[in-house]
Amino acid sequence: MSLRLLTLSNGRKMPQLGLGTWKSKPDEVGNAVKSAIDIGYRHFDTAYAYFNEKEIGDALKEVLSDGKVKREELFIVTKLLYLSPESVRKNFMESYKKLQLDYIDLYLIHTPIPLQADETGGLKKDETGAYVTDDIDYLDTYKEMEKLVDDGLVKSIGVSNFNHKQLERILGVAKHKPVTNQIEVHPYFTRTKLINWCLERNIITTCYSPFASLDRPWAKDDDPNLLKDQVVKSIASKHNKTPAQVLLRFCIDLGCAVIPKSVNPGRMKENFEIFNFKLTPEEVTSIQSLNRNWMMSVDAFWHPARNHPFYPFNEF
Ligand SMILES: NC(=O)C1=CN([C@@H]2O[C@H](COP(=O)(O)OP(=O)(O)OC[C@H]3O[C@@H](n4cnc5c(N)ncnc54)[C@H](OP(=O)(O)O)[C@@H]3O)[C@@H](O)[C@H]2O)C=CC1
Ligand SMILES: O=C1CO[C@H](CO)[C@@H](O)[C@@H]1O
């Protein structure tokens, strides 16, 4: 089974399916990347904040020097967490050195909110539990990222966790348009309006947490579990596929890219085998009707930023 490529607004190609690596530990992510390469994955998603770029870089160096893949077949994505325009290049260079590649395919602003780091590299909170933020406009950050494209260090740039108004501001000034907005998408948080708004403007949505992040550190026993959803299960059995494969195919059939995380070769293979079936338009609609605006990370991760003017979830 081979990967499908999406054409980005700048003409470059991005494999529609990629491997997510948030929570993939430094001592397991290298083997995960190498197994994924053997299965056929070519698109890998990481971030400065995942603390695994060095190990991913080591694994990529190995498969490149073995001749298993050519650099131009790979699509490597990483993200900028701290938005200060003065430190964009410095922060980028840290990721770049760890990934050990001569260019990065896609560099994203991780979140529109200018979060501050604490001394351990985690996110700083004040005594009330709110994130400590800076007074930075992501437009200034974006302009610095464009210089990385001009210098050939990055092929494409984009954003993550932005709403349509924030994207509109970027489109208003961009010399290099954002090729993607990477956002949480699954049947309980379908983001239909934002996905369509982006499609009309040639911005591809990359769906993160397509299984609603089963291994998120803050999961509770009574949280909904998409793999057990009756509608998803019944569509899966009609196609002789697993619920996980239906969740991924849902994103594919919306015209989006999708980046499921796994460190297990069996599950990585299962997640890769989604290009030999297709959901009907009725099945897509019935999955969309499961939407309940349930975000996997709203309480645990985003809540401390809810009062920031750039909090992205009060708008579509
Ligand atoms: N831009 C952003 O702010 C964000 C980006 N992301 C990106 O998106 C990626 C994916 O999202 P993530 O939150 O990790 O969660 P996912 O929704 O991809 O879920 C990952 C979990 O599902 C399990 N799993 C994988 N495949 C299967 C399968 N076929 N059947 C059953 N279980 C399966 C994994 O276990 P196992 O590994 O053991 O297989 C893991 O526990 C991230 O890793 C990251 O790269 C995610 C969140 C935010
Ligand atoms: O990318 C990430 C994974 O998801 C988390 C919750 O949204 C964040 O910690 C982080 O930004």
UniProtKB/TrEMBL annotation:
Gene3D superfamilies per the UniProt record, alphabetical: NADP-dependent oxidoreductase domain
Organism: Saccoglossus kowalevskii
Family annotation (PROSITE patterns): ALDOKETO_REDUCTASE_1, ALDOKETO_REDUCTASE_2, ALDOKETO_REDUCTASE_3
Domain of life: Eukaryota
InterPro entries named in the record: AKR, Aldo/ket_reductase_CS, NAD(P)_OxRdtase_dom_sf, NADP_OxRdtase_dom
Pfam family, one: Aldo_ket_red
PANTHER family: ALDO/KETO REDUCTASE
Protein name: Aldose reductase-like
Lineage of source species: Eukaryota, Metazoa, Hemichordata, Enteropneusta, Harrimaniidae
Domain called NADP-dependent oxidoreductase: residue spans: 17-291
